[in-house]
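To the wet lab folks,

You asked to see what we're planning to order before we commit. Fair enough. Below is the target structure as tokens, and below that is the sequence we designed to fit it. If anything looks off to you, flag it before the synthesis order goes out.
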């Protein structure tokens, strides 16, 4: 405990399931470091359940994907922004921690400028502006007091703009520790996993093509086994319906939860773009990436994105280690061809070796602790700063 920063106030905002997990870990670790620290904010069920926190669970509504989907909820987001700004202004936290979720969080940072320097603004997990608009970096340097990034190449990008930046490591290094190293599960080379995403709209966009690919490829693999991962019991029902509609009931098993365990066991997999593809890479599962969104969102993304790959493993490797089946290239035939290619043990081993090299720097555990230490340091700086304007 640090008595010099006793009784600090921290406001957190996370808008997605992964951010909720990271925020809950920050609450737990910071509570051990700072006596009497209190938490408010917006997050998910894990943050809301953390002892001593007053965090609202909003991720089910907030976690929309794609420009078109966001525009349909524009009025709702405007109201939530106004409410959040009002709460922060009234509560006057020492630190506002913005966890990923840049579409909302960077706008919130802009609205909170009048509270600085008494309230510091920290971004945890950098928006991927290096992929679509590096010109935003100087603006972010003006809006933020600290950046906590999870990829090593990001630190130099932000520091060059004058923004204090820490590379804290990737939180998956902690989350996946039990599955890598000496305690890792045995790899079942004939088991193929389908990981269509953790939201219903992702399942609707991806799963039918994945199942159709299995139908095309399964007859050439008499010893093959197949499973699809459903993130929750709520999603398992629709997943089972789609498996049955594809004529694969009894062929493709539906497993609820434990997706990381299945990635550690499967010999290969088809994975929806997002955090899950990095999990697959860090767990050493040979895989391909699938991605489909609303057509307006896709074409806007094509105009904005400035990197040649979508998957972070490919970005880290500087080449296409993981095949990417995006939008119109996502077809049952293309996926089935990839499944046939990956029947070969040497092909799977080659991808595993490339993945291991690409993500080696991300496996070091301790990211959650380092994030908490950085936030505690910012709180301490707040205590040393006198607000020249006094209370609002």
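Sequence we intend to order:
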């Amino acid at each position: 405990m640090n008595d010099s920063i006793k009784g600090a106030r921290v406001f957190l905002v996370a808008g997605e399931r992964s951010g909720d997990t990271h925020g809950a870990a920050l609450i737990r670790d910071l509570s051990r470091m700072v006596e009497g620290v209190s938490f408010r904010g917006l997050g998910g069920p894990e943050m809301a359940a953390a002892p001593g926190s007053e965090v609202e669970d909003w991720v089910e509504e907030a976690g929309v994907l794609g420009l078109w989907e966001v525009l349909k909820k524009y009025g709702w987001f405007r109201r939530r922004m106004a409410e959040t700004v009002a709460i922060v202004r009234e509560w006057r936290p020492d630190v506002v921690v913005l966890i990923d979720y840049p579409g909302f969080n960077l706008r919130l940072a802009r609205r909170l400028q009048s509270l600085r320097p008494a309230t510091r603004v920290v971004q945890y997990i950098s928006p991927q502006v290096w992929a679509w608009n590096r010109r935003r970096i100087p603006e972010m340097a003006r809006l933020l007091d600290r950046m906590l990034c999870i990829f090593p190449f990001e630190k130099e990008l932000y520091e060059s703009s004058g923004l204090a930046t820490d590379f804290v490591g990737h939180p998956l290094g902690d989350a996946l520790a039990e599955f890598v190293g000496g305690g890792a599960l045995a790899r079942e080379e004939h088991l193929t996993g389908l990981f269509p995403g953790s939201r219903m709209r992702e399942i609707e966009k991806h799963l039918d093509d994945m199942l159709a690919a299995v139908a095309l490829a399964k007859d050439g693999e008499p010893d093959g086994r197949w499973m699809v991962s459903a993130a929750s019991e709520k999603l398992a029902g629709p997943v089972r319906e789609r498996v049955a509609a594809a004529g694969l009931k009894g062929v493709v098993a539906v497993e609820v939860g434990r997706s990381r365990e299945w990635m550690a066991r499967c010999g290969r997999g088809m994975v929806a773009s997002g955090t899950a593809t990095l999990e697959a890479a860090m767990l050493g599962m040979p895989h391909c990436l699938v991605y489909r969104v609303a057509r307006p969102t896709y074409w806007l993304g094509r105009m904005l994105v400035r990197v040649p790959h979508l998957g972070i493993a490919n970005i880290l490797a500087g080449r296409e280690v993981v095949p990417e089946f995006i939008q119109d290239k996502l077809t049952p035939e293309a996926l089935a061809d990839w499944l046939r290619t990956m029947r070969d043990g040497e092909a799977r081993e080659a991808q595993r070796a490339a993945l291991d090299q690409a993500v080696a720097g991300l496996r070091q555990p301790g990211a959650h602790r380092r994030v908490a230490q950085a936030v505690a340091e910012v709180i301490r700086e707040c205590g040393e700063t006198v607000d020249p304007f006094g209370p609002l």
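Structural context that might help your review: Residues 386-392 have pLDDT under 50 and may be disordered. The longest strand covers residues 188-195.

Thanks,
Computational group
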